[in-house]
Amino acid sequence: MSETTGKRRTSEMSETGGAGAMGGAGETGGTSESIIGARDLVVRFPAPGGRTARAVDGVHLDLAPGEILALAGESGCGKTTVARTLLGLEKPTAGQVFFQGKPLSYRGRDLKAYRREAQLVLQDPSGALNPRHTVYDAVAEGLRIHGMHRDERERVADALSRAGLRPAEKFFLAYPHELSGGQRQRVVIAGALVLDPKVIIADEPVASLDASVRGEILALLLRLRDELGLAAVVVTHDLGLAWNIADRIAVMYLGRIVEYGTVDEVLTAPRHPYTRALVSVLPDSPVGRSQVLTGEPPDATTVPGGCRFHPRCPALASGAAEEAGVADDCRSTPLPLLDPHRPGAACHLIAAGHKV
């Protein structure tokens, strides 16, 4: 679980609990300390044949100021849809997104103001930057959209400098094709920073970069957190990245968060069978022998009953769930949503007091 950059933790959360079940969604957006959150979040899309894709199927989430939360899981698990919904780019089918304890408003003016506070950093910097725009124009675009024309040149230079492009003026007239991949990603980050946001949503922020550059960008995100107090949700399928950058991790499977906890807790002592399988393939894995999951993740239009992971669960296949007397529950009894403030895993076997 090593990367080229180190990690600095904020204070570890010490809440304890069993399976971490949520007793019920509150009327407000989580704790008074949370900067962004979601309650009972559901996002559904129409699919061919009159079917409905349950992309996000009940998620509670809270992010504290200055915290980095990794949202991890396989492709298609719903993590990018959660990120887009947190940004207001998708409207929930049910549930609510909260910002600083207040429900997100989807009126045009309110949503525009919110997007100054919560900024997106995309996976592919080449696709995120207009090849016909200079670096200066790319970074200044947000200022112009929000009518923040005062001190534009100084704001752009400051954002580029914070993103590690110094001297900033050297890059003003450069075009994206003249920059390296790492420099383009820094321009994208500068375009977010120029608006002085409180939250960054980063969707696979280093997936398209060479290994030699990945550590630099991760170190930059950590430095911005420490210097500016920025909170961030980092969407990733890479648990090594989560290990190096995040304070907490939420592991998603088929539209639900199946395990919450600090990165150290989850990646050194994973509890949910799905998390254990993901961690098992990491170098120096604490799980031991690699676990290969059978089959493909189910389609979001055909979510299994009971525990949605049960068709691929090693604990059910091995007979461990049968021995514990929870096999029928695994196949038929839905699990409660997890509380983002308590480490836990949504698993019938764990709820019955057994180890996976």
From TrEMBL:
Query: What GO molecular functions are on record for this protein?
Result: ATP binding
Q: Where is the composition biased (Basic and acidic residues)?
A: 1-12
Residue numbers spanned by region Disordered: 1-31
Q: What are the record keywords, sorted?
A: ATP-binding, Nucleotide-binding, Transport
Compositional bias, Gly residues, is annotated for 17-29
InterPro entries according to UniProt: AAA+_ATPase (IPR003593), ABC_transp_ATP-bind (IPR050319), ABC_transporter-like_ATP-bd (IPR003439), ABC_transporter-like_CS (IPR017871), Oligopep_ABC_C (IPR013563), P-loop_NTPase (IPR027417)
According to the entry, every stretch annotated as the ABC transporter domain falls at: 36-279
Q: Give the family this protein belongs to, as stated in its UniProt record.
A: Belongs to the ABC transporter superfamily.
Which NCBIfam families would you find in this protein's record?
A: oligo_HPY (TIGR01727)
What is the protein name stated in its UniProt record?
Answer: ABC transporter ATP-binding protein
